[in-house]
Amino acid sequence: MISSATLGLSSHRLPPQPPRCSTPEPNPKSLSEPQGRKHKGSNQLNRWSRARSIRSGRKLDRLHQRTTQRLELNPQVQNPKESENGEASSLTGSDGYDDVEANFGKAIFMVSDGTGWTAEHSVNASLGQFEHCLVDRGCPVNTHLFSGIDDVERLMEIIKQAAKEGAMVVYTLADPSLAEHAKQVCKLWGIPATDILGPITEAIASHLGVLPSGLPRGAPGRNFPLSEDYFRRIEAIEFTIKQDDGALPQNLHKADIVLAGVSRTGKTPLSIYLAQKGYKVANVPIVNGVKLPKSLFEVDPEKVFGLTINPVVLQTIRRARAKSLGFSEEVRSNYSEMDHVREELEFARRTFAQNPVWPVIEVTGKAIEETAAVILRLYHDRKHKCSMPRISKLY
Amino acid sequence: MISSATLGLSSHRLPPQPPRCSTPEPNPKSLSEPQGRKHKGSNQLNRWSRARSIRSGRKLDRLHQRTTQRLELNPQVQNPKESENGEASSLTGSDGYDDVEANFGKAIFMVSDGTGWTAEHSVNASLGQFEHCLVDRGCPVNTHLFSGIDDVERLMEIIKQAAKEGAMVVYTLADPSLAEHAKQVCKLWGIPATDILGPITEAIASHLGVLPSGLPRGAPGRNFPLSEDYFRRIEAIEFTIKQDDGALPQNLHKADIVLAGVSRTGKTPLSIYLAQKGYKVANVPIVNGVKLPKSLFEVDPEKVFGLTINPVVLQTIRRARAKSLGFSEEVRSNYSEMDHVREELEFARRTFAQNPVWPVIEVTGKAIEETAAVILRLYHDRKHKCSMPRISKLY
């Protein structure tokens, strides 16, 4: 197997799997029914959950935990799993998309009173530490994002469902009372839970000597002033889109960063990633036998970055690309056959050698975000020639 | 003041502020000198840091903390602040970019053995809780990102510098020995420190019953397989770029999500944000008096989202836009004058009213990421008609 994805955007895995839908059932022990909404677990869901728990041996642990913690239980609060009485049934759904549970994956519930992107980003980064065991290696994980959860009833409902599905809960709740509620309820029910935003917010509050607002992003009291930053970022994205794939070479001098590389070295997604961080990026394709635009050699060479890649990996990517684009056999082989790939990379290598100021970044095995990190580190180091390289921002 | 930025990409503030460069000085007490690199603090830096500490009263706290913690100090390890003997000097630099410290901002050092994006994302989200007091309200914060820090020497150097600058340290270190080192050293020196990745990784490890790899992203042992996801995401980005601003209306049926709205409702940055999450997005501009493409009314209406905005805010954004594009006076007033703005929004409103299945999203005061969260929530709810709405993924 090719062990690298040059363009892998590992921080945002895809495609988002649709939720496993559940049919409503009567919910015998309602702790705090949601107002105006009906979100209930299904029998099938409970059976799956139970079967999974039994197989994983987790149910026993959970029971033990519950026994221990029952001592401090509020008598009104009972573990929603007690209402389960389903049995293990077939765990294979007809459609992988609609039966996420059928994958035997362990579930992670991400709950936020804002967008939930911080929880998603952190969980994703953390799951990067378990890549050796995820879906291909028999240890699949299903994440479920619940965003905009800003009242206790819906929060409770989700935590109850987490208990049913044997999920762990991670939360980013700006509202301190919601966060405290999540903490207490998870503790009472023996649900593993992690507060993502709380510890760093507390540390910053103490560092600044200022209390946090307790308002999630998008709350009515929050402001998003039309700042210079705002206009600059929009401009960077629009510029980058217009400059994509060698368009408008006369504008290269307006770019902050210029990427040069052969087709399928990830120039476009990398450009877009950098643009979202506020850099105007232009990218220039290197095509064997096609003259590069004169302006590429006229701009400040300190802002040009060459991209290179292992030929075998490149060929694999190009073959998939040619197939998905429906290239004819002839075009396809010209684009992705090894001789052609090697010649084109050699042409790129010579171009880079003639421009020794351009750093050449090996993208093989790097996710987009990693290549971006390397480029920005070099970009800031070169621009500021610091004794201690860093990327600094003012808030 | 207009208190909203419809398009504010609040998760990625911009522009990145270049580091305040320091000239090398002899470093009298070297704990663990970096090998092959010379990164040293400047006298000026120390003076600024000291002055800031004195003004903030933090130095005293820190001293107190140090006294308490000295009891457990390793005798070899001394607080690098002790080597300071500078005095407060002018704190105003000639150039805001190169003198970040001159803003009197409190510093946050973000240290990672990977890309550092998780630390940056979390700190940014957390700083969202302090928007009431940041740069405009006399409580500026400077963040400094140190990525790819994968040996103890460089880690020590940065923590030492954090002590000199009175910074707090947040870290995402996949390597457990590095993380432990950071924790211990910060504790010894009384530097406030937060481990961003550790707690969630530990919780997931315990949930999965699997040990984390301890390898940062991009480490040689890590794999990024050329998965289906990978190709799908690249395709989404490329599709979205090609479809931007109403291009290729004949391809609207290929999009997962179609956005329709008047100019400057944030269609482009929102499309790009969603594309990076793997959705193919097309956007269709609504222009007063211009017929919308027939295909917009032929595609599945459940995937079309209308965007609307407060006219006063829109006018402000358009004025800035017209100015930056150098529109002539005449074009400018046609684009951004209030009568025109209202008429165009009314035209959009009528279009939306005629297509009642399209949800209409009010983007005023929402950052791109928030609008995206609303759209994805609706998108997944509609697609899967679940009793408990969620966005699920399989890892």
TrEMBL record, chains A, B:
Note whether Nucleotide-binding occurs among the keywords.
yes
Q: Does the keyword Nucleotide-binding apply?
A: yes
Q: List the keywords (alphabetical).
A: Kinase, Nucleotide-binding, Pyruvate, Serine/threonine-protein kinase, Transferase
What's an example of a GO molecular-function annotation for this chain?
protein serine/threonine kinase activity
Q: Where is the composition biased (Polar residues)?
A: 66-93
Record's compositionally biased regions (Pro residues): 15-27
Q: Where is this region: Disordered?
A: 1-96
Q: Which InterPro entries match?
A: Kinase-pyrophosphorylase (IPR005177), PPDK_reg (IPR026565)
One of the Pfam families matching this protein, by short name: Kinase-PPPase
> Where on the tree of life does the source sit, at the highest rank?
Eukaryota
**Name of the protein in its database record:** Probable pyruvate, phosphate dikinase regulatory protein, chloroplastic
Species assigned in the record: Populus euphratica (Euphrates poplar)
Question: Which gene specifies this protein's sequence?
Answer: LOC105113246
